[in-house]
Every structure is written in C-alpha cells, then in structure tokens.
C-alpha cells in the first residue's frame, strides 16, 4: 500500500470535547460607553457639590436710597413745620379680645353624655367557678368582681369588669384577654 504524502490534506487540530458541536460565541465588547457616562456623571456631580460648598458672591451692602426731589415750577416750598403731626394709632382690639366673653347656648340633646360600659366575662352556677375566672383575669393584670344575682332560673355568679368611660377601653381590654385565652366577654351599657 502506498500513500500519497504530497497531495494529502493537512490535519487540523481537534477541538476539545466541550466545544464540539457548539457555535462559536462572539466576543463581548467592553462597555466603554457606559464607563464614560458614569465618569462624566461623577465629574458633574462633584463639580456641583464643590459649587454648593464654595462661597458665592459676598452679600451686597444694602443700598442707601436718597430721596429724589422733583422741582415743580410753581410749587411752594414745604417746610417741616407746615406738615400735620402724625396721628397716634392706638389699637384697642387686643385688649378687647382679652376681656371678651362669648356665651353659647347648647341644647340638652346636643350635649355630650358620657356613657359607661361594663364587661361581663362569665356567669356561673357555682361561686368557685366564678372565683377561678376572676383569678385568671387578675393574673392578666385586670380587676374583676364577682356579683351574686338571683334570676328567674335561680342563683347566678357573674364575673364583671368595669365600669369603663368609653367602649374603646373596654374593647381594648377584651382583646388583651382574648390573646391570653379568656374568651366570651361581652360589653354592655352600665346601668
């Protein structure tokens, strides 16, 4: 077997396996434009800060105005003695406002009435159960009372809190009790 060494094609170097079958990726250009814009912006910002820091022109001295005298052909010269005296202005409204009293009639129906509320957290047949709930409420930092009432169905022991001057305060305490596991408290108008 003879080989033709003169007309043979030169062997090319084999590509590594990682790059076989993949297209050649174009080289990325470096962002010179972006770098240049950031550099210019930093320079302008630095100049602006320097301009703010540097003292501007010195404050100008207040201008002294000289009165302009316009001569009129047939005008009489005015002397200071011919001028009327300056009137004295005394403002009295300040003293009047200090001593002024205003009376406003408000009808009885429009007057604000403070409503008192109470919160009932339980009603039990046995006093020991009511005292247990009262103790649980006391551990939360609130004060409760056990009231004995006789109803149509017999004797009841109610655990109540209050009175509260507003419903908001009662609701706030109710939410705190609910977070601590004491549920079922009801808010009522106090009698």
From TrEMBL:
What the entry lists under Pfam families is as follows: SPOR
Give the PANTHER family listed for this entry.
Answer: CELL DIVISION PROTEIN DEDD-RELATED (PTHR38687), CELL DIVISION PROTEIN FTSN (PTHR38687:SF2)
Does the entry feature the keyword Secreted, yes or no?
Answer: no
Keywords in alphabetical order = Membrane, Transmembrane, Transmembrane helix
Q: Where is the SPOR domain?
A: 111-190
Bias-annotated ranges (Basic residues): 8-26
What superkingdom heads the lineage?
Bacteria
Q: Where are the transmembrane segments?
A: 32-52
- Region Disordered: start-end pairs: 1-26
Q: What is this protein called?
A: Sporulation protein
From which source organism is this entry?
Shewanella intestini
The answer, when asked if Ubl conjugation is one of the entry's keywords, is no
């Amino acid at each position: 077997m003879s080989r033709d060494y003169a007309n043979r094609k030169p062997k090319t170097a084999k590509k590594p396996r990682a790059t076989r079958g993949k297209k050649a990726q174009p080289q990325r250009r470096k962002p010179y434009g972006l770098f240049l814009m950031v550099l210019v912006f930093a320079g302008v910002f630095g100049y602006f800060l320097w301009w703010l820091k540097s003292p501007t022109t010195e404050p100008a001295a207040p201008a002294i105005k000289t009165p302009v005298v316009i001569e009129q052909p047939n005008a009489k010269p005015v002397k200071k003695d011919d001028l009327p005296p300056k009137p004295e202005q005394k403002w009295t409204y300040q003293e009047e406002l200090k001593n002024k009293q205003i009376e406003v009639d408000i009808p009885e129906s429009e007057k604000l009435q403070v409503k008192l509320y109470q919160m009932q957290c339980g009603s039990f047949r046995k006093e020991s159960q009511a005292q247990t709930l009262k103790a649980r409420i006391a551990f939360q930092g609130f004060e409760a009372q056990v009231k004995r009432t006789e109803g149509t169905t017999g004797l009841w022991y109610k655990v109540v809190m209050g009175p509260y001057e507003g419903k908001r305060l009662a609701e706030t305490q109710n939410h705190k009790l609910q977070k601590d596991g004491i549920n079922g408290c009801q808010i009522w108008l106090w009698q």
